[in-house]
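$ fold --in a.seq
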Amino acid sequence: MNILRRKLKVGITYNLKKDFTHQEDQPIDSFEEFDSEETIDAIRDVLESDGHEVFKLGGGVGLIDRLRTSPVDIVFNIAEGIGGRNRESHIPALLEFLNIPYTGSDPLTLALTLDKSMAKKVVQSEAIPTPGFKKVERIEDLHSLNLRYPLFVKLCYEGSSKGVRLDSKVSDPNTLRGKVRWLLETYGTPVLVEEFVSGPEFTVGILGNEDPVVLGVMQIEIKGSSQDEAIYSLEVKREWEEKVRYHCPPAIPDDLLKRIEDVARRAYRALDCRDVSRVDIRVGGDGAPYFLEVNPLPGLSPVYGDLPIMARRMGWEYSQLIRTIFNHALKRYGLVE
């Protein structure tokens, strides 16, 4: 049993949607990754219920001054950061510079996993199955494409289905060029083109460090679409209550469940994730689970976050999920006995 030596001053770092104003020239999903005040309050309430003093530190450049005026023992970090493929690393790097403990993965893992092409190269090096892919920085990069259609097109440095639409699956070169051109011009960042895996999609919650454990495996069913062709797009996620069914645990054979868990755990280890992550996997026509991507900063909304939904389906209270993530970090830093 872990015993906390003392009550702590805990900061929460985050970015809120309401702090940004959408401009006409910005994509509709520019702030999709950012959080709501309700999520921050929910995390705060759990930590305060355990007797900790909690400070809502937010993010942005003012964080440095807030850390000076409100020194903390540890930070519960869910900040997505602002700008560039290293943005998720900004606050953890600052906290390391200031020698402040924090929850979650370190700057290297956060930067690596946000760049989907780099993450896939690492998991490939560990012989973890992942669809064939190519990073596209300009339209000319498609000239040397050596992938099998159909293909799936998404932004290389984004999460929360930013840039993913119902037409993100493409079946011919002309459609591919049009979709890639739109993404490059609209978002101004590289695109990942990968072979489409025609099969059911799963997301796997993993917790821990030295011996990470699977919280649950959740199958994502898009209502009205066959499981072989469904796309978990922005349109679908924004209307998840009407358009999505979550199956956790999924009604699949035990051997397939174990293989999905194995791929997820191996990817978690290969990418040096810490405390918590959510791994996305799709099963191909050959019956093999394929790694798609990993999110080491999974959404923690108690209402619509995939990880809290999964935890709830596995019999966990929201408070248990938050405490478990927090306690894994405390143990890493030697703050519990």
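$ fold --in b.seq
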Amino acid sequence: MIGKNFVNVVFNSCYMVFDKQVPGFRIIYKKEISNLFNERLHAKKLKSKNIQNPKIFEVYYFAMFRVFYKRLRDKAKIQLILKFIGKKIYDEFKKKNKLSGNTKKDLALIQKYFQKNKYYNNAQVSWSDKKRFKQVINGCVVYESCKEIYHELGFSANLVSKVMEAYFNEYKLKVFEKHFNPYQQHKKIVEFWEFK
């Protein structure tokens, strides 16, 4: 099961975005997401609605971003939503983890946080030099949804990247994710990062 607190932070932060922008959006979006969520549960023959269950979490996650795209039709705005969620997860992570400012050590702590919350099986970071590294995420619970969103809607909905970006922003590190298809390997999200 995915960590309860982690699940709450992910989904509650989504609706917080809309509450800040337009009061009442939460009701509209939540209804549409709920309808699509139930449709996909039925299609996948899933009877549980326990959002901590990885399969159920993934269905809801997909429904959420599918509705965001349908309503907003703006990838830049969706990226801002993802950035907001990533920052909220990062804030939650910091409550129980002491960061040192050492990038390698801190990224390892972030990886352990996601692993502990059962968001993925494991992740490895390998550095090609001081300015470039590759991250491989294995067994992410939303892999299939993220892959579908990427190919159908044209953006990556990987939360790990957004949490890392929140970390880089806090330490004023100019790091960017290079353009590529992160879902080319089965069940693995492969990301390439570079310091400016």
